[in-house]
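Hello,

Our lab assistant flagged a job as stuck in the queue for most of the afternoon. It eventually completed. Since we weren't sure the result was trustworthy after the delay, we are filing this so someone can double-check. Below is the sequence as submitted and the structure that was eventually returned. Let us know if re-running is recommended.
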Amino acid sequence: MKRRELMLAALTAPALGLPLLARAHHGWGSFDQDRPIYLEGRVTRSRWQNPHAELELEIPAGLKVPAGLAQRAIPAQTAPVDGKALLAKAVVPNRKDRKWEIELAPLTRMNAWNVAEIKVGDTLSVVGFIFKEEKGEPILRAEYLFIGDRAYGLRSSPA
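-- returned structure --
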């Protein structure tokens, strides 16, 4: 399809009530990277595809940051992330949403970390970032993923 035809299709699809070809991708600039958020719960939906894997996580009422989160072992990664400081600052969100969309890493990075495909019903925890001032949809961009006793640093590849 030529560029002009593609642009025309993208512009007319919403007017016709048709879904767009791709969902908007969220850049890091929209997320509050000064306020890490902790979530844990059960996976209710999993999309294991690019541009990045996504989960829907159902969190329990009354969620609290677990004691000792800052002492959890985290892996070295190629991005300069102060993981211990990030975990020490983690808080739960103020908003009361029970279902959160979790944006993980691209599949190539998930494979580099040897993360097995996450399935509906799995339980996990995650530390990451949400939209500034907790505005907008309940979306968290994952920095660290914890499954069982394993931790994965998703900002970059393993060091």
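-- support follow-up --
The delay was a queue issue, not a problem with the job. The result is valid. The beta strands are 37-47, 54-58, 99-103, 123-130, 139-147, 150-153. Residues 3-12 form the longest helix (10 residues).
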